[in-house]
Design a protein that fits this description.
This protein has about 190 residues and is an alpha/beta fold. The protein is built from eight helices and five strands. It has a five-stranded parallel sheet, sandwiched between helices. Helix 4 packs across helix 7. It comes from Ephemerocybe angulata.
Length: about 190
């Protein structure tokens, strides 16, 4: 069974930094490393931080990630993903103007055929989800990231993962060393 490691969480929690260290340590070729797709999709389709509440933007990001993820899984036995198809679902919920709209958005994205394929993989024991929790001193506004509501965003990640029955491990402010995060992630992946 092919193994996949997903590094997820709110903005500015060190996802890309951890992924870069893991990719180097594991000697992953580019085909096995799915980098963040949100910025590419935003650039290609004219989205911005101001359109983060747009459900279509989150759907486009989800589809883009799943396409890249499926290509990587086809090409390699070990895949590392900087984010997952869960991330756009969380942001669609987080930015909803009401609880009713949040439920509607969640339902729409959960029932998308591409997400249903991904969910099957996500629930397999070979899929390792590492949720990076917020570390206040790491928050950096680069004009693209959504840095508001990090705690609420983290809570939504946890709720979505639980609702979907996806096992995960949280690494937060008690584990700020990228080396320690790498060791704990690899330990989770190879336990």
């Amino acid at each position: 069974m092919k193994k996949a490691i997903y590094i997820i969480g709110p903005s500015s929690t060190g996802k890309t930094t951890l992924c870069e260290v893991l990719a180097k340590r594991l000697g992953l070729e580019s085909a096995a490393y799915v980098r963040e797709v949100a910025r590419r999709i935003m650039r290609e389709r004219g989205y911005s931080r101001n359109t983060i509440a747009d459900l279509q933007m989150q759907l486009d990001i989800m589809e883009g990630h799943i396409e890249d993820e499926e290509r990587a899984i086809e090409a390699a036995n070990l895949v590392l993903c900087d984010r997952s198809a869960i991330d756009p679902i969380v942001y669609a919920i987080l930015t909803a103007p009401s609880a009713d709209v949040a439920k509607q958005r969640q339902s729409t994205l959960f029932s998308h055929p591409a997400f249903e394929r991904a969910l099957h993989r996500y629930r397999e024991s070979a899929s390792i989800f590492i949720l990076l929790a917020p570390v206040k001193s790491w928050v950096v506004d680069d004009g693209v990231r959504s840095i508001e509501n990090q705690e609420k965003c983290s809570e939504i990640f946890i709720q979505v993962l639980r609702d979907l029955g996806i096992p995960y491990r949280v690494l937060g402010s008690d584990c700020q060393s990228v080396y320690e995060r790498m060791v704990l992630t690899l330990g989770q992946a190879y336990s």
